[in-house]
Amino acid sequence: xxENEEPTGGPHFVGKKDELIKxxxxxxxxxxxxxxVLYHQEVxxxxxxxxxxxxxxxxxxxxxxIDGKLCIICPKHKYKISLAKGEGWYKxxxxxxxxxxxRWLSKGVKQRIHTITEIDGDVYVKLSEDPQKLDSDYYxxxxxxxxxxxxxxxxxxxxxxxxx
Length: 164
Hints:
This protein has helices at 17-23, 141-163, and strands at 12-16, 25-30, 33-40, 43-48, 62-66, 69-73, 80-82, 87-92, 103-109, 113-119, 122-126. By secondary structure, the chain is of the alpha+beta class.
């Protein structure tokens, strides 16, 4: 995007419906925002590509039903994120309950979700215009790339040190 160009929010062309269905998951960047577009159980979803927790890529995350909600599981730390709303989910028990019963609880919306539309076999994404800052925003754009690169370099350095 040019320096003076204002963000448009889209809709941005993602691809042909048939090709995206076959691919199941696709990585796209629109307006300096990395997006994961996925097709699961006959529905398209668009979600920020990097997990809100530490910026891990969600591309290879498993999709599971968590308490009636379809969630992508971050491969890096197993954080659970609902595809429909971007809520973070965790399992907890109340030790005062007898017997303590594990329950799924929401952390609130953590991951930005974007709108997908299909017109005549073409699939488009409209970037979220919600002004609320979400945790996944931290790992977006040029600043996010720099943060992820720094963290990856530090992890590699630690791994090299441990191997010595």
